[in-house]
Amino acid sequence: MSDSDETSALANFKADLPASIVVFLVAVPLCLGIALASNAPPIAGIIAGIMGGIVVGMASGSPLGVSGPAAGLAVIVANAITELGAFELFLTAVVIGGVVQVLLGIARAGIIGYYFPNAVIKGMLSGIGILLIWKQIPHALGDDKDPEGDWSFWQVDGHNTLSEAIHAMQDLRVGALIIAAVCLGILILWERKFMKDIAVFKIIQGPLVAVAAGIGLGAAFAGSSSLALEPTMFVSIPEPEGGISGLLTFPDFSALGNYKVWVIGVTIAVVASLETLLCVEATDKLDPLKRITPTNRELLAQGAGNIASGMIGGLPVTQVIVRSSANIQSGGRTKASAIMHGCFIAIAVLALPFVLNMIPMASLAAILLVVGYKLAKPALFKSIYKQGRAQFIPYMVTVLGIVLIDMLWGLGLGLAVAVFYILYTNLKTPFYFKVENHSPGEPYLFELAEDVSFLNKASIMTGLKLIPDGSKVVIDGSRTVRVDEDVLEIFRTFQEEAPSRNIELTVKGLGTTQKGDPVKALKQVVESPSPASSVPS
Length: 537
Hints:
Largest sheet: 4 strands, mixed
Order of helices and strands: HHEHHHHHHHHHHEHHHHHHHEEEHEEHEH
Radius of gyration: 24 Å
């Protein structure tokens, strides 16, 4: 290993370690809460968190994605356990779901995620961000009746997202509010530029300081009649009895002849794969280094994780945007942070549950409030609005669907509206390009059609990937009237990568449309200085 490689590895480890601790602290209550919302044993959520971190993390090609039990599957899991009548039978369905996901990966079904438009993916991020904020308000005020990880509008405790927050404000606990406020203040302080310029604070992450402050305040308030926190206001990890074997439950494979088990297994595979692929798209958009996750490999990794989780008593796993975004915002750089977070969960459950049980839920609520705000910044709504109705309406429908129903409904409604816009504009053939027709010495020609939409993402990305390094490429938009924002992002990425691949890029005719058209935005981006690209005047 060279000195530069060693320096890079050390720098990555210094970033991944604190990020993994933050993700671990966020993941533990989510694992427990999702298990509770799923009517499953609490340890089942913990096992899923461990397998999602270690098994999926090691097999995945996602640099920043973090996997674990998913709130989007909670209703499916709860109904499945009730329908099958035994948790062991449900575990068999989880293993079947994992096998199906492996087969989907082998069949290269990962391309499905590319067919979701950019507005819907960004709507998912913003919707989850708003949900995080609303769902954490009760925990910040000392009301912990609804478990972490319950993302549905109608909650398991009988309230809904809005009424729960209002109810918590009417019966707030001063001690919890003080802890949440102090922790939130620490997190905001750590975001200031002058703090980031201090070397020691680049190593010690704000969320870790916030959690430590929460533990200290929780202990200090214990002797006060007005500020003391109730036991339900702390993280609650079940302490193991009878060693590791006492924590494990195994599937009943005698149920393989039960068709209901197979139906549930396939359902888990389809929903978990879809949620994972959408999360992969969203996580890659948040990645500061703009790396691309191999989606087929991700399906294989998720399948391996679900097989492992089901074999020892865990819930199904998917890649999860809350944990992934917490990882990114905490400075994670490689998949080592996801793997380490799984290891930390295992160590905590087996050796240190009493330490985690000292963490107030209010301090974790402060962390998630910041994560939620970063996912749903007002500036993002403004930028989508400026892109026009075809982007903004599907975006808002997705946001509202996620907040007022649940994530799957929100994604479905957003996609339906986006497809309607495409049909309304009479989708035509997006481009002409055949690599086999290329003549040596001639440029590769992409002739764009009059209307190019997000449905063409996969074919355009595939075509661009076929172009060898050191080539000349011409993107001809002489006849183009409208290009979807999703396709523009693909071309921008290709333009940014062109110098490193020694590709000479030329764009024709994309600056002739009327002012404000998205096509003109591409022309402006491509015209920016680039040593290996050129644009005609």
